[in-house]
Structure formats: C-alpha cells, structure tokens
UniProtKB/TrEMBL annotation:
This is Solute carrier family 25 member 53. The gene is SLC25A53. It comes from the Eukaryota. InterPro entries: MCP_dom_sf, MCP_transmembrane, Mito_NAD+_Carrier. The chain crosses the membrane at residues 30-49, 177-195, 215-237. It comes from Ursus maritimus. It holds the Pfam family Mito_carr. The keyword NAD does not apply.
Length: 306
C-alpha cells in the first residue's frame, strides 16, 4: 500500500487509512464491506463455480459439465450453495479485516513495503484457511454428483463427520485436504495484497474514474493469482470430495494421482480455467471495487468531521 498525496483536494484513497495508526473507524467498514461484497459475488457466480468443480472432478469439457447439471435437474442446480455463501461471507471479513490489522501491526506508519504487504497477506491467508476449510470441505462433498444419494443434504454430511472420533472428525472429516488449502490460501492472499494497490495506483495516475482502477486491479490481480494456483485448486477439490474411513493418501500421492488421471497433461489440469478467469474477474473485481468505494467514503466523512 503506497503513500497517497492529499494535495490538490483529491478524494482520499484507501491507502490513507492504513497510514493513520490512531484511527480505527475503518475496521468495521472493512469487515462489513468484505461480508456484503463476498456474499453477493458468491451468489451470482455460484453456477459458474459448480461447472468448474465438475470439470475439476471429472476432467470433462464445459458443455459436458453443463449438460450433466442440466440432466440432474434445476432442483440440484444450487445444491451446495449454503456452505460457500457462509464461508465466503466469513472470508470477506477475515481477508480484509485481518490483513489490515496485521499490516498496521507490522508497519504502523506507511507507506507499507512489499515485504509487509506480503507478510500480512500470508498470515491472513493462514487464518482464513484454518477458519474456512471445514466449509469448503462440506461444499465439495455436496457438489460431487456421485454422492447425492448417500448425502442428500448438509445435515447428512455433518452427521457422517460427527460419527467419527475426535481425531477422525478433523483429519478425515472437516479438515481433510487441509495442507493444500493452507498453501493455496496463504500464497493467494499474499499475492493478491502484494500487487493489488500498486496496480490500482498505476491505473489511478491515468485520470480514470475512482471505481475503474479498483475494479480492474481486483479483477486482473485476482484472476492471475487464481490461475497461478489453479493446480492447487484442482488438488483440493479432488482430496475433499472423498469421504469415509478409507486410507487417506499423502499430499504427494494425491497430487500424483491427479496428475496421472489427467493423462500427465498440463492442459487437462487446467481444464475449466476459462471459467475460472470469468468467475475470478467478476468476484475479485466487484469485491475490490466495492471495498475501495466504501473505504473512500469513510475516509472522506472522517476528514470532514476532523
């Protein structure tokens, strides 16, 4: 997050609030914005995500995935949406709120260096993974068409997990596939927050409307980050779709199995990547733009009161 010049009467930019260590009013705004924007973007892009998930599991084309969902019927089209709606709402509060809190702790006075943004993003991704991995686990089981008869609802999955012992609930139940989730979330958050503001600042210098730099920055940065980590996304989907007491393979064995089932071809690993671009562009573009808009309004009102 770069230092912003406040001369010439321009509207305050979001970076300002991170450079004012004594002002905490922006915290609640960041949490609320993250929750609302993530909720809306998740609901709007869920059909895209479900098609992508089927591609990741079955390595099928877009048309085949859509046809499979259509054949199952409209009553199953939004099956599994409640866990991601809840998890993404929580993700918004954790992602932005935790990042800003950690960033101010690491660097109370701006401008914040790339190292500080990277470290704060990495740690916020760790918190996010620990808190939200169980939601993603339930979601991936629900969205696997092969398990609709055995697990028709979220409650049925929770009953299955809770029937295990304490360690089984964690390792085989709620936190199955946790290590790739931790790696994906920590690296993804670090990349997103490291380059989001530099891209936005560069675009803002072109004299574009205030919402355009944030929208483009979030869209481009979120999409690139998602594509870089896409193999981990596929690995997580495959590991978390399994359920039961069967022997759980190691992370390396699971990665090797995904590689072998995709014919050892990179383009099959990235099958569904085109839809990931669309979903990431919409989700991260909207989230970043709304967050930036409300944050600038909060800063402007604070300046008027002062």
């Amino acid at each position: 997050m770069e230092e912003q010049n406040h001369s010439s009467g321009k509207e305050l930019q979001p970076r300002t609030r991170a450079e004012s260590p004594g002002k905490k009013s922006w915290h609640s705004q960041a949490y609320a914005l993250g929750a609302v924007s993530n909720f809306m973007s998740t609901f709007l892009t869920f059909p895209i995500y479900k098609v992508v998930f089927r591609q990741q599991i079955h390595a099928m084309a877009v048309s085949q995935a859509v046809q499979q969902l259509w054949h199952e019927g409209p009553q199953y089209f939004y099956r599994g949406i409640y866990p991601p709606l809840l998890s993404k709402t929580l993700q918004g509060t954790l992602l932005f709120g935790t990042y800003d809190s950690l960033l101010c702790s690491l660097s109370p006075v701006g401008p914040h260096s790339l190292q500080h943004r990277w470290a704060a993003g990495l740690m916020s991704g760790v918190v996010e993974a620990v808190a939200l991995s169980p939601f993603e686990r339930v979601q991936n089981v629900l969205q696997d068409g092969r398990k609709q008869a055995r697990f028709p609802s979220t409650v049925s999955i929770l009953k299955e997990f809770n029937s295990y012992g304490l360690w089984g609930r964690l390792s085989l139940g709620y936190y199955r596939g946790f290590w790739p989730v931790l790696l994906r979330n920590s690296l993804g958050s670090a990349l997103y927050f490291s380059f989001k503001d530099p891209i936005q600042d560069g675009l803002a210098e072109q004299g574009l409307p205030n919402w355009v730099p944030a929208l483009v920055s979030g869209s481009v940065n979120g999409t690139i980050t998602c594509l870089v980590l896409y193999p981990l996304i596929v690995l997580v989907a495959n590991m978390q779709s399994h359920i039961g007491w069967q022997s759980m393979p190691s992370l390396w064995a699971s990665a090797q199995d995904v590689w072998d089932t995709r014919g050892r071809k990179v383009f099959l690993i990235y099958r569904g990547g085109s839809l990931v671009i669309l979903r990431s562009s919409v989700t991260w573009g909207l989230t970043t733009a709304i967050h930036d808009f409300l944050q600038r309004r909060s800063c402007s009102k604070k300046e008027l009161k002062d």
